[in-house]
Amino acid sequence: MRKKQFKTESQKLLDMMINSIYTHKEIFLRELISNASDAIDKLYFRSLTDKSVTLSKSDYAIWLKADKNARTLTISDNGCGMTEDELETNLGTIAKSGSFDFKRDNAKDEEVDIIGQFGVGFYSAFMVANRITVKSKPFGADTAFIWESEGASGYTVSECDKESFGTEITLYIKEDTEDEKYSEYLEEFRLRSLIKKYSDYIRYPIKIEVERKKKKEGSEDEYETVREVEILNSMIPIWKKSSSETTEEEYASFYTDKFYDYEKPIRVITQHSEGSATYTALMFIPSHAPFNYYTKDYEKGLELYSSGVMIMEKCSDLLPDYFSFVKGLVDSQDLSLNISREMLQHDRQLKIMAKTIEKKIANELAKMLKDSREDYEKFFDAFGVQLKFGLYSDYGMHKDTLKDLVLFKSKDGKYLTLKEYTEGMKDGQSAIYYASGESEAKLSILPQVEAVSSRGYEVLFLTDEVDEFALKMLGKYGDFEFKNVTAEALDLATEDEKKKIGDANEGAKDMLELMKDAIGSVSAVKFSANLTKYPVCLSSEGDLSVEMERVLKRMPGAEGVPEAKVVLEINHSHPISEKLFKLFAEDKETLKKYAKILYSEACLIGGVGVSDPKEFAELISELMI
Ligand code: ADP
Asked: Residue 62 sits in which domain range?
């Protein structure tokens, strides 16, 4: 019998498989099983119109058989089978699907990529086998043929005996090497776990014959070995069942098994979409952040299935970054099994899916916020920062999706949405007030917080670094602007008060200038009507707050960060003001010292610390003697 050579392209792919260093060799089983399932599909569909096919759906099956002595693994099916010609064209040439672009065949380093990106089908079996035979007999035919190959040297096709129709593929598993334990593919437990991992939801039973030790009938202590057939796959994906048929426990145990979490999810999201994109999604919101969530090791993504067969473990394009905490999967009949990662990125269908998935997640979060406040707050404690980053990122492009999902703490530690804040606003209140700093404790002593609160206005406490940036990006909520209580332009005063302060500042120009020069590091010293109890406070002029400057300075590449413009505000109705005027008239040197002390005081209470503690201490002592 004449040995035939593979077509050039197939030859290249084959070489790659034989010498593969690819780490996920195990995918070969997924490929062979899904071929078998396709072949059964074909016969099944034929049976719907062809009366000669008398099988019922339950007759179809895929069989696995491992023989450790012979080192063979056999995968057989009772699908459509292949004729002699089909064996030639289907297995002698690479799949005609065109999914394999041979312009990228040039280097070994690309191998990993190529195998990972494409389902490489039948040939992937050469990653674990050095000889493969395929016996096949089409349904209704009299003769069977066998295709045999040891890889590189070519293949033969000849007539053979095969009783039943269908296909039987035998892999002669490679000998173990130091790095690679091929024998594992002959182990029942390994096959079992591979089927669970990749092919659990194949619609036909995947059967294996196993040996079990059982007590002999009528005997207490005598055992016998019996052979039993076991089905390795569950066949019905949990996401294909209607959610009313599925219990919360089932979802929870599916989630904990699949995503290795010890805690059940805080929310289960199911989605069946039809129309522009047909898919089923089953998603979960974890109850706590994974240990690596806030590191660069964390990979977002949903598992991607094409009609029940897993084609990608983490499809990152399906989730926006701000929902990166979502775990789950998407199953679509619109995607082909062999679609590459690259092609996926440009896949229109996938983009539509991603959009509808995003909407669904946003809606579910909104629902949770409404129905289960406690859960939502727990969720927000774990993942809220991510949502706030989402507000800020991409120049605020996602603000409509996210602005009603973010929470901020109120002065008394209660979470508020922006909507709740605005609904609770006092008559005449014209802005949403916030204070930004390292901790709630530090914020609560800010003079301006006291001043704003005393007018009956709520103040949001922003303690995450991203907070103030997110609000700046948001710009406004409804008709209301956000105002940092430590901004110089806080503008709480009435027109009358403003006029009075304006006059006071004008009249004390020289004194304030003298104080400013004495302090050195402020851009102005001013009287203010914003303060109530405290004598002084710091505020910032312009868009950059002191807190923002602090955050920016901590980031890489901080050299170019501008300084926030700091203003020392003095409470005009505080007795200290009179004292200052007196000193200006009688003792300018002491006034300068007072200026420094007041500035340090404002720094301390503002949480920024005193830059020269020694000088501060000396000045205080001097006053005391
Ligand atoms: P793909 O599945 O992407 O087309 P493969 O290399 O895996 O590529 O398979 C090539 C072809 O061989 C399949 O398209 C199918 O026609 C045929 N084939 C493979 N396995 C079987 C099988 N178990 N039964 C019938 N036909 C099969």
From this structure: 10-231
